[in-house]
Amino acid sequence: MIINPVTMNELDDLADLFDQYRVFYGKASDFEAGKAFLRQRIKNEESIIYIAHDEEGRPMGFVQLYPIFTSVGLKRQWLLNDLFVAEKHRREGVAEALMAKAKILAEHTDASGILLETADDNVQAQALYEKLGYKKDTDHFYYFLPVE
User: Fold this and answer.
1) CA of 28: how far to CAs of 14, 18, 23, in Å?
2) Is 93 exposed, middle or buried (0-12, 13-18, 19+ CB in 10 A)?
3) What are the boundaries of each domain within the chain?
4) What single DSSP character describes residue 69?
């Protein structure tokens, strides 16, 4: 497995995985809209995206992180917003390898940590996160204000 930061050269591979990811979460397939969204993130340097390819160059999965900051802690943090592994590559260590790459990014940018969220019923992902040292935050509530 080879994991590298995404460039515009990998945009089609990434967009295909991204479309599968969105469909997995119940959205309608829209390859072109997803590709445009990703193009803007890459072009504007608004996120860091790593993509995993197998030895033959086929895309396996990706992770996307957005920079955030802790005012109280006076440091950068990373929001691990998207993690996806193509169905045929699950249970091959791809997610763990992508998360390890995210941890290296956090360490190299002197971040205080990585924040992520997952669904209550996503016990498989929760098990992976806890295995990798992530701690469940039970001290804070999470709120969301829809503005659409």
Assistant:
1) 17, 12, 6
2) middle
3) 2-131
4) E
CATH topology for 2-131 is Aminopeptidase (3.40.630)
Q: With a threshold of 0.90, does the pTM exceed it?
A: yes
Per-residue CA distances from 54 to 35, 88, 101 (Å): 21, 12, 16
Pairing of strands 2-5, 48-53: antiparallel
The tens digit of pLDDT for each residue in 78-133 reads: 999 999 999 999 999 999 999 999 999 999 999 999 999 998 898 989 999 999 99
As given in the structure block, the two tokens for residue 8 are 């515009």
Report the run of H or E that residue 75 belongs to, with start and end: strand 75-85
50-63 pLDDT per residue, tens: 999 999 999 999 99
Task: Name the amino acid, one letter, at 23.
Answer: V
Q: Coil, strand, or helix at residue 52?
A: strand
Tokens 């390898």 correspond to 97
